[in-house]
Design goal:
By secondary structure, this protein is α+β, with helices and mostly antiparallel strands. Among the domains are: 108 residues, no CATH class; 135 residues, no CATH class; 42 residues, no CATH class. The protein is built from nine helices and 22 strands. The strands form five sheets. The protein has a six-stranded antiparallel β-sheet. Strands 9, 10, 11, 12, 13 and 14 form a six-stranded antiparallel β-sheet that branches. A four-stranded antiparallel β-sheet has the order 4-3-6-7, with no helix packed on it.
Length: 420
């Protein structure tokens, strides 16, 4: 999954999941049996390898002969993932309608370079330097992040590229995350994590296996309440509403928008910097223009699901639109943590702008809370597949705004989650 979080744009994320590769089957009734074998390049069976459908609670391990059996959905697409300590993660993209049964994995050892990075990172105590930055980009900073902990941080290593100012994170085995607020233990297979220090952009790709935590009735009630809160604000919720043509009923307002650069402001900026000693009339005009926004945004009327859904090549539904989409969720105001984060960035940006133009301003006032909104754009206009269970193939989907901040490990739910 790839994500990008941009400081000036609040949050900018490319989900290769962008979201993340949390690919699972549609909400199917019934299951089919999968069986197969995991071996190394020499044909030797690998026992106790982990086999799971990414983004679900469906998983197992191989027996002494390297063989496994697993229940899989009857319909839809999903990714079957194999992990084994000391080996590279392997996956196969499957479609239930093709009736896959005998699935074999051949695994290759992890590179010596990866092993060296982990060892060097430990010897240099790089977690002390980079651990907080990594956790913020990986776990997130939502209300649920405080009790979402990485159990085995010793499997994580860092490599900082000073020339490009990019931090790379690696894991020698699945990262185990314990989410006390949502009641899940999550096994995270991390295949890529890049943090661009200069603008706080993050790109990462993971595969997730969920396991329910054990607890008493009081804990289960709390977990269900928190899961519903996480679900309400999630991309999964929007995707399900879109698939079922229930955007308005579920509280979503979707509009197409276009952004045009304010060319007059760009022109005035250049002139002002070249000649600050202007006549009063010219100075008054320049101040007026410089106070305008850098871009002009034009919004359409609210769109229906029918206007942005098409049939994909494999007869499923796909999200397709021109320009960009603004998605607003109008049932809940933005969380306090996001409000503070967003306005801290906005105030910092505006203060920098005021300083650079040399124009005085009155004291900045914190705005009221908004409904959470996200701006979506398609890479090269390529439609993205969606499914009834909330899966969205966001390899070609960019997200800017709330979901870029919210969609982290601490808020993740398995695709078989259903709100009560």
């Amino acid at each position: 999954m790839k994500k990008k979080l941009s400081g000036n744009k609040l949050v900018y994320m490319r989900l290769l999941l962008v979201f993340m590769f949390l690919v699972v089957a549609t909400g199917a009734i019934g299951q089919q049996k999968l069986h197969g074998k995991v071996s190394n390049e020499n044909g030797q069976p690998l026992s106790n390898a982990s086999i799971f459908i990414s983004g679900t609670k469906i998983g197992t391990t191989t027996d002494i002969a390297g063989e496994f059996r697993l229940n899989a959905p009857l319909t839809g697409s999903f990714k079957l993932v194999a992990t084994y300590i000391g080996y590279k993660t392997v996956l196969q993209s499957l479609n239930a309608e093709s009736n896959p049964q005998n699935i074999n994995f051949i695994m290759k050892p992890a590179s010596n370079q990866l092993k060296g990075i982990i060892v060097t990172s430990h010897s240099n105590n790089n977690w002390k330097r980079w651990g907080t930055v990594f956790t913020d980009g990986f776990i997130g900073k939502s209300v649920f992040a405080g009790k979402c902990k990485i159990i085995n941080q010793d499997v994580i290593g860092f490599d900082y590229d000073e020339e490009k100012n990019v931090l790379h994170a690696y894991a020698s085995e699945p990262i185990i995350v314990r989410n006390e607020d949502l009641g899940y233990i999550i096994s995270v297979s991390l295949t890529n994590f890049d943090l661009f220090i200069s603008n706080n952009d993050v790109e990462y790709q993971v595969y997730l296996l969920f396991k329910e935590m054990e607890g008493d009735a009081k804990q289960h009630t709390l977990w269900e309440d928190n899961r519903l809160k996480a679900y309400s604000l999630s991309l999964m919720h929007f995707s399900r509403a879109l698939y079922n043509h229930k955007l308005k009923e579920e509280g979503y307002e979707v509009r197409q928008f276009t952004v045009k650069v304010n060319k007059e402001k760009e022109r005035v900026k250049k002139l002002y910097l070249q000649n600050p000693a202007l006549y009063q009339d010219s100075l008054r005009y320049y101040k007026k223009i410089l106070a305008e926004k850098d871009n002009n945004i034009k919004l359409s009327e609210p769109l229906t699901a029918k206007a942005i859904l098409v049939k994909s090549d494999n007869n499923t539904l796909a999200l397709k639109f021109q320009d960009d989409l603004q998605v607003v969720y109008k049932k809940i105001k933005e969380p306090e943590e996001y409000y503070n984060f967003k306005n801290h960035l906005a105030l910092t940006t505006e203060s920098m702008t005021v300083s650079s133009t040399g124009i005085s301003t009155s004291q900045l006032v914190m705005p009221s809370k908004d409904y959470p909104f996200t701006e979506l754009s398609l890479v090269k206009g390529i439609p993205v597949e969606i499914m009834e269970n909330g899966y969205i193939n966001n390899t070609n989907l960019y997200m800017h705004g709330f979901w870029g901040w919210w969609e982290k490990i601490a808020t993740k739910l398995p695709y078989d989650y259903e709100p009560n």
